[in-house]
């Protein structure tokens, strides 16, 4: 029994610093950058949205990721365990449950997107997009109208993710992301260079880089930029917290979760913009096409490019690597949490989590409209709630100065000064709450359902999770007192 308990409590660690950096980048860079960021940019004013996004990236996401990673390294626990170690057993563990529920909800509609990319990868190799008479809209509609295809690809994506997770941190996640992420960067550079050399491509750059100042006073722009900053960096998903718990004593949090995040995430996000918008404008396509921008608009362009079939393969393979690596990383959050909170081993947990995510993802796989609603509700409201709980715990329970000294600057090559303390304690919570309240006030009349729905979602998540954990812990205490197992 002693050896079994020892085996269960022994926590895996990253094998190398490079593996940790690639895993952090793999968690951050995925469909959020390549699928979500271009269409969200197109819908919210182009350059104005990018300006809001970059401001929030450096004001909220980068310092916040340092805090979330340091919290994981400090507690050496998964999401619920980190809150338990900080607050003690009881209702406050519900804060961790909120993060887990939000991440599982996000994963449930993310894996169908991975399946969509896989379908396009297969057809890029079959040269479908360069066939005479190919129609991208009809192709997309045929795919989304077929439950066999959408649910089938969602199933394959879930199996692939589960297969990698069965091998654990070092032999599974680390081994895969170390070659996936560098290959993704190479493919994006190739496609971006080709896009920028197309006639008329400069109009796409102008759209992406020239702010329309009218958009910067709109609540929609800022709530979308906030959601994108959290979605594409992974802040609030529990990724940084979980990965931080696997850090070794000599790993560098400011470098991995700070500078590398800023440079890596922003660079790949801009590469995606350079890969998409020059092509969209060069061929007179609509930049506000929405979630279909990548799957419909770009596919219609590849056949018109010299060497189009090759560019299609390169682009969708890179896209698939990004999407799959993020799918692996975010599914690990639920896996690591359940392993810690139950008696299941990794194989059993991976099977349970993947089955739950697969079942929850079927509606999103079946209906693009349902997927869009899930993305708006959990991306723009669920993630900010989860982020506020993590940052609030560091800022007001543990104390940023304590975490900065004990964890953040331990063995760090980059020293983080005391400026970080007020950013965590005051700036991030105030800026996030201001954006959400501003959005509520400016949009409640025009989009009542979405606005009220977001508030209801946050309330139900928070109250429900706290009550669930309170009941669970009370029952455990009662069972122990009565001599039960």
UniProtKB/TrEMBL annotation:
Pfam families: SNF. Keywords: Membrane, Transmembrane, Transmembrane helix, Transport. The keyword GTP-binding does not apply. It is a multi-pass membrane protein. The chain crosses the membrane at residues 18-35, 47-74, 95-122, 148-169, 181-209, 221-247, 259-285, 310-335, 347-366, 378-398, 419-440, 452-472. One of its GO terms (cellular component) is membrane. The keyword Transmembrane helix applies. It is found in: Membrane. This is Sodium-and chloride-dependent transporter. It comes from Halococcus saccharolyticus DSM 5350.
